[in-house]
Amino acid sequence: MPRVKRSVHARKKRRKVLNEAKGYFGRRHSSYKFAKEQVERSLVYAYRDRKARKRAFRRLWILRINAAARQNGLSYNQFVSGCKKAGIELDRKILADLAVSDPAAFAGIAEQAKSALAEAA
After folding, report:
1. Buried b (16+ CB within 10 A) or exposed e, 82-99
2. pTM of the full predicted structure?
3. Are 106 and 98 in contact (CB under 8 A)?
4. Does the structure show a pLDDT above 80 at 121?
5. What radius of gyration do the chain's Cα atoms show?
6. Cα angle 88-52-23, degrees, rounded to a multiple of 5
């Protein structure tokens, strides 16, 4: 079996990890052993937090919609139900943006939701 010289590939692999560890504190940015552990952990955090960011934004949107809906005399639950019955197909991101940037337009949507709830009852 022929001999395999690994030095080029091994150096390249270590250099990649050390480049990813730039900015870490202490030996975590300079020692391959510690840098490798921290880079692996950081990648796990990054994956986890990409998922968590989506949940956090959804929570924020719901808070904003709820606050604006209550100013218009509806709870969040009633507002969303009324929107469904009125056939308003705006997602939470757009509704939250309207609630913050254009309260008059949001009030119009809330009125449509209210009337749809009244008709259904």
Report:
1. bbebbeeeeebeebbebb
2. 0.80
3. yes
4. no
5. 26
6. 135
